[in-house]
Design brief:
Strand order of the largest sheet: 1-6-7-5
Largest sheet: 4 strands, antiparallel
Helix content: 25-40%
Radius of gyration: 20 Å
Length: about 280
DNA sequence: AACGATCCCTGTTGGC
DNA sequence: TGCCAACAGGGATCGT
């Protein structure tokens, strides 16, 4: 599923292909643009515009245009960007196509249609960005500030890691991986984390995301997220707990367990991530 | 306000 | 073997 590392990998592939290019044609099918005023709006506000850069905030791809608007793409749950030359066959579930002035195409392939494309003016963009918290990679708060964001919250820490208003970019896969690396049980009350645990959490977010990006993201066998050139990401083979319930923890060999948190499956090692903090002990 | 539940959507999976 | 309910999940929304 596209989370921060997948979106960042996609962004890096797009930069050399689209920055400085002008969009000469746009095709939209289905409900891809449902969060904007409509497909026609996206077509008219994107066609003829030149892409200035490609950025990212959380799971949002943000491409400022020469018009002052910003081209926004969210991959949702099953979306991925596919770049190809005009004339190359389109994959099933291609929902959106932007044709560039050099003949290349940027396509959104999205079987479950939870992704969307929009073109926002500065006010709309500001409103959209206010709704999400700092980027989990580029703007990750200090451990103390992270603690401040979780203070007083009784919800499971896993649930709040998925809440994009706390920090943006983590999804179900990387949240599980982060908690495992930090040695924190997913059901721990978020506000109960101690300073040392917050430090571990922060470090885990940074290192897991960096490794995910370095591996080109996570491609699972089913609804595979793929790189824009069609290749698979390699982080799936390195997952410590996600999707591995019943299999031995890569750290200690204990069977990985699964519990539902906030309606999402959560995978954890009961030994590396004990439900309650062990007593402080010298050593 | 916080938080859990529900819904959207469709390809895949698992049980019978 | 075939059918179909259950499942997957990012995010919006609703109810408590």
């Amino acid at each position: 599923m596209p989370e921060l590392p997948e979106v960042e990998t996609t962004r890096r592939h797009l930069v050399p292909l689209v920055v400085g290019r002008t969009v000469v044609g746009v095709e939209i099918a289905g409900r891809t643009a449902r969060r904007n005023s409509g497909p026609a709006d996206v077509v008219s506000r994107l066609t003829g515009r030149t892409v200035r850069s490609v950025g990212r905030r959380g799971k949002f791809l943000l491409a400022p245009l020469d018009s002052g608007d910003t081209w926004v793409v969210h991959l949702g749950m099953s979306g991925r960007i596919r770049t190809a030359g005009t004339g190359e066959p389109r994959e099933l579930h291609t929902r959106f196509v932007a044709v560039l002035d050099d003949g290349a195409e940027v396509r959104l392939v999205d079987p479950r249609t939870f992704g969307f494309v929009a073109v926002l003016d500065p006010d709309e963009l500001a409103r959209a960005l206010r709704a999400i918290g700092p980027d989990a990679l580029d703007e990750l708060p200090s451990a103390a500030a992270l603690g401040g964001r979780l203070a007083g919250r009784r919800a499971p820490v896993k649930a709040l890691l998925l809440d994009q208003r706390i920090v943006s970019g983590l999804g179900n896969i990387y949240a599980d991986e982060v908690l495992h690396r930090a040695g924190i049980h997913p059901l721990r009350s978020a506000g109960s984390l101690r300073p040392g645990e917050l430090e571990a959490l922060r470090e885990a977010i940074t290192s897991v995301l960096a490794e995910g990006i370095a591996a080109g993201g996570t491609s699972l066998d089913d609804l595979a997220y793929l790189l824009p050139d069609g290749r698979a990401g390699a982080f799936g083979a390195r997952l410590a707990v996600y999707g591995r319930d019943g299999q031995p923890c890569r750290s200690c060999g204990t069977a990985v367990e699964r519990v539902v948190v906030s309606g999402r499956s959560s995978h954890y090692c009961p030994r590396c991530q004990p439900p309650r903090r062990e007593r402080a002990k010298a050593s």
